[in-house]
Every structure is written in structure tokens, then in C-alpha cells.
């Protein structure tokens, strides 16, 4: 088979009969085929013709899938939230699992809210706030211990004198106070109670 004018982007199949490679057209396969103008359209959103081929593009908020379709890039699988997300009216919102967490600047990870420093935590008398990731708890103040008394837990004063956890001098007597203790040097001794001479 001979093709007098040749087959630029194809092969000669018979006398002056060319079979064009994909993306080319014309009697001698010298013209680029505009795939973007074909029916059905090869791209879902936007198409750009190139020499011998074409490229598909998607509108903002969509990503090109391997089959040439455009899928919303705002899906939970694509956003990669730390603790999961919800889709509302096509928009994706990352979620945080507790009220003690808030979305960070990147909109995907959750950061802790320090309830103790923001004043959101309410601890009762004799208890201090301890922040945790996503929450907080109330711990007995120093000098108090948690005890189960008459059907409920309460922070009660530790008697350091009875428990022998005081640091009073050998020549001092221990006096228990609410949440603490005092040391007083015995008769015939002078000092702070921690030092007696």
C-alpha cells in the first residue's frame, strides 16, 4: 500500500488511504482532532485541546478522578479530619468529640480548651481545677484529701499532726489548721517551730 501524500500521524492502509493515530484526523492524518468538541464530551467540567490529545480540568472545589469525572474535593474522605466530620449542604465541617476541644487554625485538628484558665470550670470549695485534653477535673486542694462521707465524696482536712506528715521540730508541738498546720516551740524553747533552740 502506498500513500502518495504520506500519512503524517497515522499509517498507510491501502492506496492513498490513511488510518490515523488517536487524536489526529484528515486525509493524510496531519490535522489535530479537537476532542473537546466531540459528542459526548470527554470531560465533565472543562476541556483543553492539546496536540494529539486533550486535558480535563475541574471547577473549584472539585478534583479530577481517574475516569475523567469531577468529584467534590470537599468530602470527609478528602478533608482528612482528626476526629471525623459532617457534610452539610455540600460543605464539609470537621468535628471535635467534646466541648473541651475546638477546631485548630487548619480546620482539621482539634486543640484543647484550658477550662481552668478561661474560667469555664467550676470547682467547689477546697478543690482546684486540673486541665486535661478535652476536659478538666477538680482535685482536692493541698492539705485536703478525698473521702467518702455520708453518701458522697468530699475534700476533708488532712490532720498533719495525727498523720505525722508535719515538719515540726522535735522540741515543738504540732497544731492542725484547716488545710494546713502550725508548729509552736515547746516551753523553754524559742524559734519558728521548725527550728527550736
Automatic annotation (TrEMBL):
GO biological process: cell adhesion; cell differentiation
Keyword Lyase: no
Record-linked InterPro entries: EGF, EGF-like_Ca-bd_dom, EGF-type_Asp/Asn_hydroxyl_site, EGF_Ca-bd_CS, Growth_fac_rcpt_cys_sf, Nephronectin_domain, NOTCH1_EGF-like
A family per Pfam: EGF_CA
Places the protein is found: Secreted, Extracellular space, Extracellular matrix
Key words of the record: Calcium, Cell adhesion, Developmental protein, Differentiation, Disulfide bond, EGF-like domain, Extracellular matrix, Repeat, Secreted, Signal
Domain of life: Eukaryota
Main location: secreted
SMART domains xref list: EGF (SM00181), EGF_CA (SM00179)
Stretches assigned to the EGF-like domain: 32-71, 112-150, 157-195
GO MF annotation list: calcium ion binding
Similarity comment text for this entry: Belongs to the nephronectin family.
Protein name: EGFL6 protein
Amino acid at each position: 500500500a502506498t500513500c502518495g501524500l504520506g500519512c503524517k500521524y497515522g499509517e498507510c492502509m491501502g492506496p492513498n488511504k490513511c488510518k490515523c493515530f488517536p487524536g489526529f484526523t484528515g486525509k493524510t492524518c496531519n490535522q489535530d482532532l479537537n476532542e473537546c468538541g466531540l459528542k459526548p464530551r470527554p470531560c465533565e467540567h472543562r476541556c483543553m485541546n492539546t496536540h494529539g490529545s486533550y486535558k480535563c480540568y475541574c471547577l473549584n472545589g472539585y478534583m479530577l478522578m481517574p475516569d475523567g469525572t469531577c468529584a467534590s474535593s470537599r468530602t470527609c474522605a478528602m478533608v482528612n479530619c482528626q476526629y471525623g466530620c459532617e457534610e452539610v449542604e455540600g460543605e464539609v465541617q470537621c468535628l471535635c468529640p467534646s466541648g473541651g476541644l475546638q477546631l485548630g487554625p487548619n480546620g482539621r485538628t482539634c486543640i484543647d480548651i484550658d477550662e481552668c484558665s478561661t474560667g469555664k470550670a467550676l470547682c467547689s470549695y477546697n478543690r482546684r481545677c486540673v486541665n486535661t485534653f478535652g476536659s478538666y477535673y477538680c482535685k482536692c486542694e493541698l492539705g485536703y484529701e478525698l473521702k467518702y462521707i455520708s453518701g458522697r465524696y468530699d475534700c476533708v482536712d488532712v490532720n498533719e499532726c495525727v498523720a505525722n506528715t508535719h515538719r515540726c521540730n522535735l522540741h515543738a508541738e504540732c497544731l492542725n489548721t484547716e488545710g494546713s498546720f502550725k508548729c509552736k516551740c515547746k516551753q523553754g524553747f524559742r524559734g519558728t517551730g521548725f527550728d527550736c533552740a
